[in-house]
Amino acid sequence: MLKPTFIAHRGYAASFPENTLIALEAAREAGAEYIEVDVQLSKDLVPVLFHDRDLQRLCQQQGVIHDYTFDELKTFNVTDVEKFSDIYIANKITSLQEFIDYLKINSELNAFIELKRLMIDHFGEKKVLEIVLPMFSGMEQQICFISYNQSVLKTIHDSSQFATGIVVDKWSEYTTDTGWQSEWLFCSVEGLPENNKALAIKPKLAVFEVGNIGLAKHLLAKGIGHLETFRIKEMMQAFSKGGSGTKT
Questions:
Q1: Which helix (H) or strand (E) holds 158?
Q2: Per-residue pLDDT reduced to its tens digit, 87-118
Q3: What is the pTM of this model?
Q4: Per-residue pLDDT at 136
Q5: Is 99 exposed, middle or buried (0-12, 13-18, 19+ CB in 10 A)?
Q6: 3-state helix vs strand vs coil in the chain, percent to 5
Q7: Residue from 98, 83, 102, 137 nearest 28 by CA
Q8: Residue 182 reports pLDDT greater than 80
Q9: From the candidate CATH numbers 3.40.190.10, 3.20.20.190, 2.60.120.260, 1.20.140.20, the one assigned to the domain spanning 5-53+94-238
Q10: Can you tell me the distance from the alpha carbon of 248 to that of 246, in angstroms, rounded to the nearest whole number?
């Protein structure tokens, strides 16, 4: 069987508040070499790690990230109370700078940085790249920028040495007729083509969200080796050397 490479989706998000340092450190401790996070900008243009289009699920607040200054965001608790109750109720938002500092200390980690469409639509591609790209100076071998927005990725591809990755929900949304090529393609597992021959593409293919061992084995049998998962610890243990891959 093909050996899997697991990508920690927002850190170890199954057991810790996603996109925060405690989830990222738990993923590293579980053995992750690849971590994916989401980036948005605050009202005063401070990049933070945050996935959702609104603040309700994770902060129990109204509005969106760019409605608030960074100082205001720092007063919110960041956790999923339906999942974790009040265990992590004092957990705070993680800034992109905090994450970069963490990566520099843990240089064995490779990070996929998703630039969220909501941020790009609100602030514009130029402003987003002016703020975010310089923060990763000298980290080109450790970072890959990913997004649903292919325009911003093309700009990164044309103007820097950073790797890029297109994100799609459906395989039909991916096209090679664009005049450029990303290094990665992220596709949802539900959106994969039925024809396995279509998977023979030049970009490295990563599939999300892989939540159980049976699905992971099915994808590995198709020749898909990069699997994005919220359950990084369970996956790493199940497919570790000597593991049977039969855990659920």
A1: helix 150-159
A2: 999 999 999 999 999 999 999 999 999 999 99
A3: 0.95
A4: 98
A5: buried
A6: 35, 20, 45
A7: 102
A8: yes
A9: 3.20.20.190
A10: 7
